[in-house]
Write a structure and sequence with these properties.
48% of the residues are buried. By secondary structure, the chain is of the alpha/beta class. It has ten helices and 18 strands. Helix 3 packs across helix 4 and helix 3 (156-169) packs across helix 9 (306-314). The chain has helices at 39-47, 150-153, 156-169, 184-195, 208-217, 231-238, 255-264, 285-290, 306-314, 333-341, and strands at 2-8, 11-16, 27-36, 66-67, 71-79, 91-94, 97-98, 119-120, 133-137, 141-143, 176-180, 200-204, 222-224, 245-250, 265-273, 294-297, 324-328, 350-354. It has two domains: 2-143 and 319-354, Alpha-Beta Complex (Quinone Oxidoreductase, Chain A, domain 1), CATH 3.90.180; 161-297, Rossmann fold, CATH 3.40.50.720. The chain is globular and about 60 Å long.
Amino acid sequence: MKALRFHAAKDLRVEDIPQPAEPGPGQVLIKNRFCGICGTDLHEYAYGPIFVPKEPHPFTKAHGPQVLGHEFGGVVKAVGEGVSHVKVGDRVSVQPLIMPREGDYYADRGLFHLSSQLALAGLSWQSGGMAEAALLNDYNVQPIPESLSDEEAALIEPTAVAVYACDRAGVTAGNSVLITGAGPIGILTAMAARAAGATQIFMSDLNDTRLALAREALKDVRTINPRSANVGEVIRSETEGGVGCDIAIECVGNEHALKNCADAVRKQGVVVQTGLHPHENPLNWFDVTFKDIDIRGSWAYPTHYWPRVARLIASGQIPALRIVTKFVSLGEAVTGGFDQLLDPAGKHLKILIDLSR
C-alpha cells in the first residue's frame, strides 16, 4: 500500500509498504479516509526526529522510518477477537494515544494521556494516518455519529486539544478570553471557548493573513497583531473595568506570546500553556505573584473526550471544518501540504490529505 513515511529531517517519502497484518485480539484494521497535517508533523519534517523514536519505543517498540499522521479517521475493514464496540463498515475517528492500560500509575487512575510510556499512532506506533490503512488497538478506534462527515472525523483530535485547553482554563459563560496564535489549534480553541460560553474573544498573531482567516472562521473575534499594538493594553482598554481578560490560552509555544498572556490577564486570572516551548522561557514571576494568577499546563486530552468532541462538531457548536483551507492527495502531500504549511507567508491553516484520491 502507499504510505508517507518520515526518514529524517526534510526526508519524507511516499513509498509502497506492506499492508498491515490482520487484526489480532483487541485490534482493529481501518481503511483511512482523511488525515490532517499537524504542527507536530511539520516539526518532525523540519527538525526531526523529535517524537519519532531513534531507538525502539519502550512500550510499542516502534521506530523509524515512521508512517506519519495522528489526526485521522476511516472505515473499519476487520476486527480482532474481543472487539465489540465497532464492526466492519463502521465509520470511525482515531484517538491516537497508545499506552499501558493498567499497571501504570496514571493509567490506573484513568489519566491515560499522562502515562510516562505514552506513544502515538503516526509518531511512535506501527501505523499512521498518512497511509491507505492502519492497524490500531480497539480503544484507539471510536465510532462517529452519522451527522459527522469523514472530513470532520479527522478534526476530532485537534479539536480535543482545544476543548481540553478550555477545560483546564475553566472557561465559562460570560468570560473574556485571549488566544495567542491564529493557527489551527488557536482558532479551534477560540471556537471551543465560544462553545463554552465566552462572550469576548481576543486573538493575537504576527501574521495578518492568519488573523484574517481567524476572522472568517469566527466572525466576532477581536484580532491583534503584536507588531502594531500592545496586546495587554488593547485588552485592558476593551474589558470591563480596564483590568484585562479573565483567561489567556497560549497556543504558539513562544515566550513573547506567553508573556503577553501573563500581562493581559486580570488579577487572579488564569493562563493556560498549550503550545510546546522549544526551550526555557524566562517569565516575569514577580508579576505572576503580584497579580495572583494561575498558570496551568494543558497536555493533549483525556482519551474519553472523543464522543463529547464529536457531538460539539456535529452540532455546529464547534464548526471545525472552517479551519480546513486545502485538500491534497497522498502523492501531493509533501510539496502541496508540508512545504506550503511551512511557508512563512502562512496562506493555509489546516490541510487534509484525502486518502481516496
